[in-house]
């Protein structure tokens, strides 16, 4: 099965604030917020939702096709992807733009303040999905620009490609109708718990509205694990224990790669969720979203230690 990953491709600038944001924000002055945080570390890493999910899929042994838009400064990232064996022929460079940049500050409570510069990503909707991908493929629509997400949903529907819908950071910009269109046509829709509540408010829809039309809904809950909802019932999935916790930024995209692995290999949802949780545990162990590089044997061993089972061969 061909796997297409769309979403952002960016440079991530990750900073640590060795204090708590809440100690520096006055609740009664929130209407005139003007704060500055002195950070202790700064790292620039390769990132973006499409890049991160693809990285974790590669760790699981999956071959994926990345489709996206980048800028004139993407050369280092191109070299990195080529060195790792990714097909980069569907990534289009816009030479009058810079590549997207995500800037993240994390405090001692793992709260984050982020800023995102779209750059070339705003042209993502101009990069078409190659004609060779069809109903026998699987499509991951990860967070990118509002226009691109809408475009990808339309492409998937027109060509009958099953897809994972992950609106993520674009939850606030997509209308209720756009969110419902994306989720209701998907095979899998995934949200964190805050995003799920926002989805419910904006669409005025509930779980049954999706599961009754055979959409699998996944809601991640941070340290509380995740819940996978299907027409056949709910599956609670626990977390896998990391060897250390350094930065939480990459956990969500690592989790999504595990879900993709489970789906394309037709695994039971509980097993798929546990593989996703295992991948997420690696995502918090390093600064940067693509710095963890466990072998497949290490992944299988951690899965066994945490869930007392074996990842099925594929």
Number of helices: 9
Give the strand order of the largest sheet, numbering strands 1, 2, ... along the chain: 5-4-1-8-9-10-11-12-13
Outline: globular
Rg, alpha carbons: 19 Å
- The number of E-state strands comes to 13
Give a description of the structure.
- The protein has 314 residues and is α/β, with parallel strands linked by helices.
- The chain has a single domain (3-307), classed as Ribokinase (UDP-N-acetylmuramoyl-L-alanine:D-glutamate ligase), CATH 3.40.1190.
- It has helices at 49-59, 75-83, 146-158, 176-184, 193-203, 207-211, 251-264, 269-283, 296-307, and strands spanning 3-6, 10-16, 41-47, 65-71, 91-94, 100-106, 112-117, 138-141, 163-165, 188-192, 216-220, 226-230, 233-237.
- The strands form two sheets. Strands 5-4-1-8-9-10-11-12-13 form a nine-stranded mixed beta sheet, with helices on both faces. Strands 3-2-6-7 form a four-stranded mixed beta sheet.
- A hairpin with a 5-residue loop joins strand 6 (100-106) and strand 7 (112-117).
- The protein is globular and about 50 Å long.
- The mean pLDDT is 94.
């Amino acid at each position: 099965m061909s796997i297409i990953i769309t979403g952002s491709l960016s440079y991530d600038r990750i900073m640590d604030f060795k204090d708590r944001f809440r100690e520096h924000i006055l609740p009664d002055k929130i209407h005139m917020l003007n704060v500055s945080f002195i950070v202790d570390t700064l790292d620039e890493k390769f990132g973006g939702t499409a890049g991160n999910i693809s990285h974790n899929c590669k760790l699981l042994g999956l071959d994926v096709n990345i489709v996206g838009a980048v800028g004139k400064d993407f050369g280092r990232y191109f070299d990195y992807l080529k060195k790792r064996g990714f097909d980069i022929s569907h990534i289009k460079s816009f030479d009058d733009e810079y590549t997207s940049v995500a800037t993240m500050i994390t405090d001692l409570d793992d709260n984050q303040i982020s800023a995102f510069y779209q750059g070339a990503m705003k042209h993502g909707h101009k990069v078409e999905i190659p004609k060779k991908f069809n109903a026998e493929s699987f499509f991951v629509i990860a967070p990118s620009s509002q226009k691109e997400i809408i475009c990808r949903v339309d492409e998937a529907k027109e060509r009958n490609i099953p897809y994972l819908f992950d609106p993520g950071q674009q939850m606030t910009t997509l209308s209720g109708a756009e969110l419902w269109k994306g989720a209701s046509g998907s095979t899998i829709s995934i949200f964190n718990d805050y995003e799920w509540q926002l989805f419910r408010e904006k669409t005025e829809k509930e779980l049954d509205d999706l599961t009754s039309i055979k959409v699998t809904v996944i809601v991640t809950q941070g340290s509380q694990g995740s819940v996978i909802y299907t027409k056949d019932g709910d599956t609670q999935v626990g977390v896998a224990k990391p060897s250390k916790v350094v930065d939480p930024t990459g956990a969500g995209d690592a989790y999504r790669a595990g879900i993709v692995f489970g789906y394309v290999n037709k695994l039971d949802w509980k097993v798929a969720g546990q593989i996703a949780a295992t991948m997420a545990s690696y995502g918090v162990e390093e600064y940067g979203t693509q710095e963890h590089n466990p072998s497949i044997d290490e992944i299988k061993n951690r899965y066994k230690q945490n869930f007392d089972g074996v990842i099925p061969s594929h």
